[in-house]
Amino acid sequence: MQLMSERGAAGGGLRERKKRATRAALAEAAVRLAAEHGAEKVTVEAISAAAGVSVRTFFNYFETRDDAFVVIDADAGARMRAAVLDAPPGLPPLEVLRGALAAEIAEAEQQHELWRLHAEVLHASPHLLARGVGAHMAAEAELAEAIAERLGDTGGLYPRLLAAVAGTAVRISMDHWSAHQEEAAFLDVFHEVFSLLAAGLPAPPA
Amino acid sequence: MQLMSERGAAGGGLRERKKRATRAALAEAAVRLAAEHGAEKVTVEAISAAAGVSVRTFFNYFETRDDAFVVIDADAGARMRAAVLDAPPGLPPLEVLRGALAAEIAEAEQQHELWRLHAEVLHASPHLLARGVGAHMAAEAELAEAIAERLGDTGGLYPRLLAAVAGTAVRISMDHWSAHQEEAAFLDVFHEVFSLLAAGLPAPPA
DNA sequence: GTGCATCTTTGCATACCATGCAACTTATGT
DNA sequence: ACATAAGTTGCATGGTATGCAAAGATGCAC
Fold this sequence. Notes:
Number of domains of chain A: 2
GO molecular function (chains A, B): DNA-binding transcription factor activity; transcription cis-regulatory region binding
CATH architecture of the largest domain in chain A: Orthogonal Bundle
Strand content of chain A: under 5%
Organism (chains A, B): Streptomyces rochei
Order of helices and strands of chain A: HHHHHHHHHHH
Protein name (chains A, B): TetR family transcriptional regulator
Distance between the termini of chain A: 58 Å
CATH class of the largest domain in chain A: Mainly Alpha
CATH topology of the largest domain in chain A: Tetracycline Repressor, domain 2
Helix content of chain A: 55-70%
Domain HTH tetR-type (chains A, B): 20-80
InterPro entries (chains A, B): Homeodomain-like_sf, HTH-type_TetR-like_transc_reg, HTH_TetR, MftR_C
Oligomer: homodimer
């Protein structure tokens, strides 16, 4: 059996597939090792060995060691961009983002175990959680651009704020959920956060 | 003349004052060098030399090189905590944060030039902007705790979300302002962002 | 299927980041 | 002035990250 068709990844060539496989192997090895030993104690050498490539190759795929713990899917940005531009015209921008992110997350959550480990690793190393924002900053900028395009407000403050707040929402949702996995599904937390945002973060009922 | 009383820092001992001075010198050197040469090209050695201490001493003050570009004031957290707890009881939490942050920023903005350079450095190196969130994550957690205490909602989702969104607001405000310094004062941008948040991020008028 | 062009991987050299430790210098309290 | 505590420094060490050139795959044309 061939393990083809990873994730919308019928990408024709053998090269493409191999690259995807290597990247995925590195990311997965990183998360598993971090979940077991703590992210700080996992060296690039260990990750590379677990994935069966050289250290130098690791750095061909990730700019920094931390990126391996953080980057989930390379072309999530493109998908979300499309989702934002395709959403029904009347929908409030915050709702558009809620929808696009929820879809993306539902996708990622398919790989139950890895998603859970991922959340736990990030929860255990807050600095990685922050880095998550950084790594997805490109995605954030891309999102902002898509929103700007949708609204015709290019270069404005609003699209960037919206994208950044959405990123923050995901970050806080993951962190909170990973500490309360028993009590609620991730998507429930996520939707609660967005509801709070849409309501203007009102004081909760005492 | 003695250069005493830096910033609420009449801290009695000579040791205290020297430490504050060294820390400030390192942070300032870092920002000035980064503004001139780009943050990525500034080595710890250069920063240390400019501040007149050894490399090893640099790392006695900052955990990582990037922290020197990011950490503004060590005890801002404590001040904000106090501000949050002292705010009038009826005020909505988001307004409490707006006030506490605005006061803190107004303070930092006293040093015009440094504040401007700081914003420019962060704008030029987005990864530092993200790290800013990370470095202030301790502050964020502290803020969250103060809010939680104020609301009696310890460990809940809401305080953490509020603190995180507030941090994001500062980040986006700085970034946007540093790119549009001519058009508006920083505090104007900041207040506009908070108004958007309080209104639930509604679609802007087309 | 042979052979050339292209892309990827790899090892090596190099520079920088970060930490522990021990020796040394400088404040502080009495 | 003295003993103690605190801060600074150099050295050694190990991990992170990049450029470069050689070797190994893959894709493509013929």
